[in-house]
Design goal:
- The protein is mainly α and about 900 residues long.
- Helices cover about 70% and strands about 5% of the residues.
- A six-stranded mixed sheet has the order 2-1-3-4-5-6, with helices on one face.
- It is elongated, with a radius of gyration of 39 Å.
Length: about 900
């Protein structure tokens, strides 16, 4: 018994312990109290509301045994936040125990739906309000663009917290009213990171990157530690400033705050390097990033693509560890930008479920390559379109000169019930500007206001440009005045608009009033003066720009090269050529084109060297060379370049043929001229314009084929203008055909307004035949009609100063020395065979008096001044407003031979290069 009892006693505790341990591993039942159930249900309602499952939240609410204010508030909030504010109102009305939180929730719901009047009604009806209620109402006004009432409420608040201040500052920033935002920001008693973030983002949004950077520096000096978001937005500002040093100065801050290793900040740094054009630094940083996301990879692929390094983009794409829709979209865009649209489409077709971004990229790829039909077909197949889809289509059609079709897409967008984006409005306004339709532009202006885009800087600047290009500067100026916070782009748009409408003085006044000018501002005003024929003022402005530390860009340099070409300032043009290389602007195709034009306009054949050094040529490049050949009488070279262009597969256009025909005309290549003229219709299906016929008439007339030239005018399918008849009259003067000349002059007198040039040509023709009574008759006709002969004016640049000479004028401070030297040269030439050609003197006077009148022609004065003022052997370059006369042409040949100098004269028609006693025109001009 004892042994058994002992065994039992020992066994019982062991079994009990095992059973207890098993039970202990099970969850003990918790006795549910009403309070526990209430808390769980409220939590469930809140979670379902956040997920958008409001009906499920309502079922939980209806099944609750007990409800408190939190239950009601959670359900009302769920309905409000999911766009069902009317149902929220029903529950609100049924709730007896409303508190300030309940009222605030409903108020916020109405505001979110844009029903601001109902939100305000709730606010006014509140039995009590706290700071959260006031902030909610202020935020509602801000969200709906009603800053006036938002600010009024803010000023009335009995108590404010930092969120109150942030709400109003945010509102001002979103409406681009940065001066008011800054004023309020400066008054804040305390600031949070959100306060700084809102202000810095606001400046970045209006492209005032320098103010954004200065504010960030101020924040750091007040010992506020930046977070990830602020570092990212500051990097956007640095990207806009295009300043490599600022990236370097920010990186230590990112390291110190522990964010450089953060993939988001790291990607932003990478973007800043890439946008700055520092691809090597970008790649170096990319390789050291501890973590990379798909954005990092796509940023580098896009950077290589935008810099024309497609092979590097492909190589990097192949290294992506996992191909995503984003990386494929980036590579697709790279191929499209390089013109390899088939490869782009192949990648697009590989994406199983392309998102809307991928669809948009493919559509944009087609439009970038001029494939509008393919773009439209793909656009119509899109399962989902967003605002960017419509914007890509509208912009694509505008960029491909299909502006009316772009406006039809905008109409389609409007009919779909969607609201056009800022980008769609901006592109549509550009379309109106392109077709000159100000009425449609006004309709789009109204739509933009209704869509709440009246404060968007891009839209407002687009409006200024549209009105300006449609010739309505009054409305354009009015738009400018209504912009509350004018950014630099707004000022630049107004300057450009005024310049385009020949309001140069107004443009300069606006420029002087600008609070801050960037390189675009300077370029706009410089270009305005250059295009108005005041290149010397443009050059002075450029020097002022450099003195203020503004670095010129490719557009600035292009305008200045144009000024140099117009002024014949070759030395200055060569300096700008050096500047192009120093700034790395030679990579831009249009800069190369501008260099070619500048050299040929200055009478220098260096344009050929620039052409040969360029890595890429477009049609404009070829045309620049062809026109340059024409200006300089290089007929055979023009034909050679035209044949090279054809061999390269470049299709010529009207300008190409104009260049080669003018070159043939100036070189007397009649057969070649006919061959190219006929090829326009037979080979290229290009219908000649009147100026092509004018070239042929000029060519035939100079060659003495006057009857053939007259027949061409009579039989051509386009209406002749005064220029073509004047070309024939000029040929009659050269070949002294009085009968035809009188007929042509009569035609001109009948069909055009009186023109002194016509009378002078006819008078020259009569004078060459000694018909002095007719000359006197012409002189009297001109006097009766108030017409005067244009004086001959010549310009020469010496030591960066432009000197002007007028025929017979004696106002130059060195005129006595010039006239003395001129007489000496004249006597010397007479001894070696020079005989003055007095046929072009329009007065019936003694031969000696005629010779004396010829002696003081403006180009002779200018050339002699150049010889006196420049080193021996250096070339002389003169620009003249009128065609050089035959006597001066002969005189310059003698001058070049005796002084051993090259003399270049650009007259109103072409260049003459005098060297060693002969002229490049071969006496054919």
């Amino acid at each position: 018994m004892i042994r058994w009892r002992t065994a039992s006693t020992t066994l019982y505790p062991t079994r009990f312990l095992y059973t207890f341990r098993c039970i202990s591993t099970l969850s003990l039942p918790i006795q549910e109290t009403p309070q526990t159930h209430l808390f769980q249900c409220n939590t469930r309602i809140r979670e379902l509301g956040r997920l958008g499952r409001v009906d499920d939240a309502r079922r939980v609410f209806d099944e609750m045994i007990q409800r408190d204010a939190v239950s009601w508030n959670m359900l009302i909030n769920g309905y409000s936040q999911n766009g069902r504010v009317d149902e929220a109102r029903l529950i609100f009305d049924a709730f007896v125990g409303k508190n300030v939180r309940t009222w605030t929730i409903l108020l916020t719901g109405y505001a979110k739906e844009g029903r601001i009047d109902e939100a305000r009604q709730v606010f006014e009806s509140m039995p009590e309000r706290n700071v959260v209620s006031w902030n909610a109402m202020i935020s509602g006004h801000v969200q709906n663009g009603d800053l006036g009432n938002a600010r009024k409420l803010f000023d009335e608040m009995p108590e404010k917290n930092v969120a109150s201040w942030n709400s109003v500052v945010t509102g001002y920033c979103h409406c681009y009213r940065m001066s008011e935002a800054q004023e309020l920001f400066d008054q804040m008693p305390e600031r949070t990171l959100v306060s700084w973030m809102v202000m810095i983002s606001g400046y970045v949004h209006i492209s005032d990157y320098w103010e954004a950077w200065k504010l960030f520096v101020k924040m750091c000096r007040t010992m506020v530690r930046p977070d990830q978001s602020i570092l990212v937005v500051v990097l956007s500002a640095i990207t806009g400033l295009d300043d490599l040093e600022l990236i370097r100065s920010l990186r230590p801050i990112a390291i110190k705050t522990g964010y450089e290793g953060d993939v988001v900040v790291g990607s932003a740094i990478l973007t800043a390097y890439a946008r700055n054009g520092s691809l090597d630094l970008a790649m170096s940083f990319f390789e050291t990033m501890p973590e990379r996301n798909e954005y990092s990879w796509t940023t580098m692929i896009a950077a290589f693509s935008q810099c024309g390094r497609l092979d590097d983009a492909i190589r990097l794409y192949d290294q992506v560890p996992e191909q995503t829709v984003a990386s494929k979209t980036a590579m697709m865009t790279a191929y499209a930008q390089a013109g390899r649209i088939q490869e782009a489409r192949h990648i697009f077709d590989e994406i199983l479920n392309p998102n809307v971004v991928a669809w948009n990229a493919m559509v944009a790829g087609y439009t970038q390559n001029g494939m509008l039909k393919e773009a439209k077909d793909l656009f119509e197949k899109m399962p989902l379109k967003n605002s960017a889809s419509w914007a890509a289509m509208i912009a694509g059609f505008v960029q491909n000169e299909s502006s009316r079709e772009a406006l039809e897409i905008l109409i389609e967008l409007h009919r779909s019930g969607a609201v056009p984006s800022d980008s769609s409005f901006t592109s549509s306004l550009a379309a109106c500007a392109n077709i000159g339709d100000v009425e449609i532009g006004r309709v789009i202006h109204s739509l933009a206001i209704k869509a709440g885009c009246q404060f968007n800087s891009y839209v407002m600047n687009g409006l200024i440009s549209m009105y300006a290009k449609c010739g309505n500067m009054e409305d354009g100026s009015h738009v400018f005045r209504t912009i509350r916070t004018k950014d630099t782009v707004s000022w630049n748009s107004l300057i450009s608009g005024l310049s385009e409408n020949y309001m140069l003085d107004d443009a300069r006044l606006v420029f002087e009033k600008m609070p801050k000018r960037d390189v675009v501002s300077w370029t706009a005003i410089i270009s305005a003066y250059v295009q108005a024929g005041h290149g010397e003022i443009g050059l002075d402005l450029f020097l002022d720009m450099l003195a203020r530390g503004i670095k010129p860009n490719q557009l600035t340099v292009t305008s200045l090269l144009s000024a140099c070409g117009n002024l014949g300032a070759i030395k200055l043009g060569e300096q700008f050529h050096a500047l192009v290389f120093k700034l790395g602007l030679d990579i831009y195709l249009f800069v190369g084109n501008a260099l070619i034009t500048m050299y040929f306009k200055c009478g220098y054949e260096d344009g050929f060297s620039v052409f040969d050094e360029m890595h890429e040529h477009d049609l404009i490049t070829w045309n620049a060379v062809l026109v340059g050949c024409a200006q300089n009488g290089l007929g055979k070279e023009a034909i050679r370049m035209f044949e090279q262009m054809e061999a390269k597969g470049i299709l010529p256009d009207q300008t190409s043929f104009l260049g080669v025909l003018c070159a043939c005309s100036h070189a007397g290549l009649v057969n070649e001229g006919w061959e190219h003229f006929n090829s326009m219709t037979k080979k290229y299906a290009i219908s000649p314009f009147v100026y092509h016929y004018t070239c042929m008439v000029d060519l035939l007339g100079r060659a003495g084929c006057l009857s053939e030239a007259e027949a061409l005018i009579k039989n051509m399918p386009v209406n002749p203008d005064s220029v073509i008849w004047e070309a024939l009259l000029g040929a009659c003067r050269i070949h002294r055909n009085v009968e035809l000349g009188q007929r042509v002059a009569e035609r001109l007198f009948q069909t055009t307004e009186p023109n002194s040039g016509t009378y002078v040509l006819l008078s020259n023709l009569y004078a060459s035949q000694g018909m002095w009574d007719k000359v006197e008759e012409i002189r009297q006709l001109m006097k009766d009609q108030g017409l005067t002969k244009k004086p001959g004016i010549s310009w020469i640049q010496v030591k960066n100063k432009m000197h002007c000479f007028v025929t017979g004028d004696r106002t130059h401070n060195q005129i006595e020395e010039i006239c003395s030297a001129l007489k000496e040269f004249h006597g010397c030439f007479r001894e070696t065979g020079y005989t003055p050609d007095t046929n072009c003197v329009l007065h019936d006077v003694e031969e000696e008096q005629k010779q004396n009148e010829l002696l003081y022609h403006s180009e002779k004065l200018a050339v002699v001044f150049g010889i006196l003022s420049t080193p021996n052997g250096s070339p002389i370059q003169v620009i003249k407003n009128l065609r050089i006369c035959s006597d001066c042409h002969t005189f310059m040949k003698f001058m070049s031979n005796v002084t051993l100098r090259k003399i270049i004269i650009r007259d109103g028609n072409r260049f003459h290069h005098f060297r060693d006693g002969s002229c490049s025109c071969g006496d054919y001009w």
